[in-house]
Amino acid sequence: LDLSNCSLHSVPPGLAEATTAIVLDLTENPLTTLPSGSFLGFIHLQSLAVPVAQECPGGSDAWQDVTVDGSSRLCQGQRNPCNSSVELAWPCPENSVCAPDGPGLIQCLCDSPFHGYKCLREGTFPVLLFGGILGTATVFLSLLLWATQRRKAKTP
């Protein structure tokens, strides 16, 4: 994805849709900052070129090779932060595993069969129970409102 020399002052919001990009060039743009969440989901990104004034997203630890060449900084070989020897600042809760979510970013995915907040619930979501209670409550309230409000309806 070549976005070089596009007069970008910030990362375009539509960039979030290009998470499958492998190579991205942002050089020769007057970028002020690269917000940390700009590359959320870019797990396939292997080569990123940014203006020399900008740091590689996630820092130099998130990349295998960072080189400065003229007016650009080349970040190559995105590292998996889950495989690093450095202790994670935000470890994943019990019953979950770490998964990369972009340069220097992680996400915690629940192990099967766990789900929910902090992966504390085991089994599957009770769809029938939830749907049954919701449906029953909806029908009951509809009948109640119909019975109490029908006398207020004007007849033609």
UniProtKB/TrEMBL annotation:
Per the database record, which ranges form the EGF-like domain? Answer: 108-119
InterPro entries per the record?
Answer: ATRAID (IPR042350), EGF (IPR000742), LRR_dom_sf (IPR032675)
Q: Tell me, which GO biological process terms does this entry list? A: positive regulation of osteoblast differentiation
Kindly state which keywords UniProt assigns to this record, in alphabetical order.
Answer: Membrane, Transmembrane, Transmembrane helix
Q: Check the UniProt entry and state the signal peptide residues, or none.
A: none
Q: Which residues cross the membrane?
A: 127-147
Q: Which Gene3D superfamilies match?
A: Ribonuclease Inhibitor
The answer to whether keyword Membrane applies is yes
Q: What PANTHER family does UniProt report for this protein, alphabetically?
A: ALL-TRANS RETINOIC ACID-INDUCED DIFFERENTIATION FACTOR (PTHR15926)
Protein name, entry field? ARAID factor
- Which organism does this record belong to? Climacteris rufus (rufous treecreeper)
